[in-house]
Amino acid sequence: MMNEPHNLLGRPATRYRGTDIDGPTLAPEGLWVRGRNLNDLIGQTDFESALWHIWFEGMPSAAERDAVRARLAAFGRAFEARDASVDAAALVGGMGIDMVSAAATGFLRGIDGVRAKSGTSAWDDDFDQMLACIAGAPYLMRAALGPAIERLEPATSHAERVLRLCAEGGAPSKAGIAIMDALLIAWHAGFGYITPTVLVPRCAIGTGVTLAQAIAAGFMSSGPNHVGAAFEAMRWLTALAAREGNGTDEAIAAVDAVIDQPGALLFGFGHPLFVADPRPPHLRALCTGLGFEGKHLHLFDAACARARERKGLNPNIDFITAAALLDLGVREARWGVGVGLCARIAAMAAHAVERRRRPAFGVNSSTARKLLAAVPVGWL
């Protein structure tokens, strides 16, 4: 019997680059989570099932999915009833600190109070902490924005809870909830640890911080160049939709104006890894299939066609997220970042726990000394 292959650190070879959780492929371009193509999950399952899948590497039974949903609802009720973490986020947000940083402050304050109010869990402590952080994130963000949170529970799913916290216009439609579910799954994982919002929690957990603190670190690693493009895309689409005239013509002119301006950025287009992010066309087709169409998605279509014609540019997840959120009734552009981070907690937590099971700094002392000797001068 052959020995299992090992990598240069002497550990068994991982499924993806350094991890067994998720990772991208380039030929063909795709995103994978626990051996399943991410696009096969988007629109085919719900966010609660995706959480189970990333943690336990398998799809849950109906009873297991419902149990996850019930646990998220229990945490939601606890956050809705106010908690020290919510108060901390509201206080910092009231001082003018941005929504994401304020939410991170809530996690740094700690969520033990919420977990105590919600009773014991049937699962391991780490999975339960992840669920608590996922349940709490939209409440912390909403508290940072003010005013006081209206009563939301009971909600039928976590997607509905997020949508009701960030959108305006009353009870969401069934199609709207399905779109939010799809967006959460599209953002929850797929790139392994190469994205800062996942890499930073992996690094932080090695110092001995709590899982909630590691997730706060992940929140703080988002910015204009990572996740933040959805914020700019929402502002751009909002301004475009406010103009008079034919929407298609306005979108074409707006894209041309950006492309023709040296050094200007067309937010929501291009990708540092992919020629074409595989999620936007899949999500756009899903919207059509659900009969979910709106002004901002039509502007998305016109802008994508023009950017492809002029520069061969393809939309990324930020742009389709911005268009869908606006047509869902989300008017605060900061939720363009917030929704992505609410979902990305799943990968943050899974990676942090995988990393914590290794030595504190990833390797033992003798291996670290060998690796240091191999690092070229001037690399960092």
Automatic annotation (TrEMBL):
The keyword Transferase applies. Pathway: Carbohydrate metabolism; tricarboxylic acid cycle; isocitrate from oxaloacetate: step 1/2. InterPro entries: Citrate_synth-like_lrg_a-sub (IPR016142), Citrate_synth-like_sm_a-sub (IPR016143), Citrate_synthase (IPR002020), Citrate_synthase_sf (IPR036969). The lineage of its organism: Bacteria, Pseudomonadati, Myxococcota, Myxococcia, Myxococcales. It comes from Pendulispora brunnea. Its EC number is 2.3.3.16. Belongs to the citrate synthase family. This is citrate synthase (unknown stereospecificity). Keywords: Transferase. The keyword Hydrolase does not apply.
